[in-house]
Design brief:
Elements (H helix, E strand, L loop, with lengths): L4 E3 L2 E4 L3 E5 L2 E2 L2 E2 L2 E6 L7 E5 L9 E3 L3 E5 L2 E2 L2 E10 L7 E10 L3 E4 L3 E5 L6 E6 L7 E5 L9 E4 L3 E5 L6 E6 L7 E5 L4 E3 L5 E2 L3 E5 L2 E2 L3 E2 L2 E6 L7 E5 L19
Antiparallel strand pairs: 1-4, 2-3, 3-6, 4-5, 6-7, 8-9, 9-11, 10-11, 11-12, 13-14, 14-15, 15-16, 17-18, 18-19, 19-20, 21-24, 22-23, 23-26, 24-25, 26-27
Amino acid sequence: ESGTRSGNTSGTSSSTRGLIAGGDDNGDATNNIRYITIASAGNSTDFGDLNAVGFGGCGLASSTRGILTLGSSGGFETNTINYVTIASIGNSTDFGNLTATCKDSAGCASPTRGVVAQGENTNVLSYITIASTGNALDFGDLTEVSAAGAGGVSSATRGVFFLGKSGKVINYITIASTGNALDFGDMFSATSSGLKGSVGSPTRGVTPVGNLSPGGVVNVLEKVTIASTGNSTDYGDLSVARYSLGGCSNAHGGLS
């Protein structure tokens, strides 16, 4: 990694490469994008830059293209969407705009469509067609407003959002359609914020619990089976207590 990022990064990935973008770098927002080869271990490498500094955005991807929202930039919430070709190296390109300005958003995707839960203290969902460019369109609403740093995972057909606002709420959507989210179940832990960094396979989603209410920052991970509904269960622990992470996997719904 370059510098010391204190959190609020955005993660996106193909089946081989993971990207981490933006975030807080030693107290200042950054526009840096770094990459790793998921199958190996080692330090990240410079990929390029976002078109502006940003933190608290989100990431999603198809097998070839990564989508990154900027979140907060220059002290203001933005609606900016960037994209990159994951297999190459270089700066991001403007994609278009979300339907509203926001921070602490969460994303999920099928191989063709991305859906964004538009951040803290809103219930708005918007969607894009990943292979094109242009402004996002209205998808529907979450069952309630989300907390700071909601998390998103998906299979190729279903998206799941960990909201955390009232302590435990999990929602789901059918990505290919539009409409309001439905109740999935509850989180085992009464989290309040910091669920960013959620990752998934085509069948399972895993989220860091983040910041408990009350209880402070923890190292707890919880899992759900994406195709079903029900409460999350314990998965294990992070190596240290953290919240507002950036996460990626080599088998998420955008690759299926």
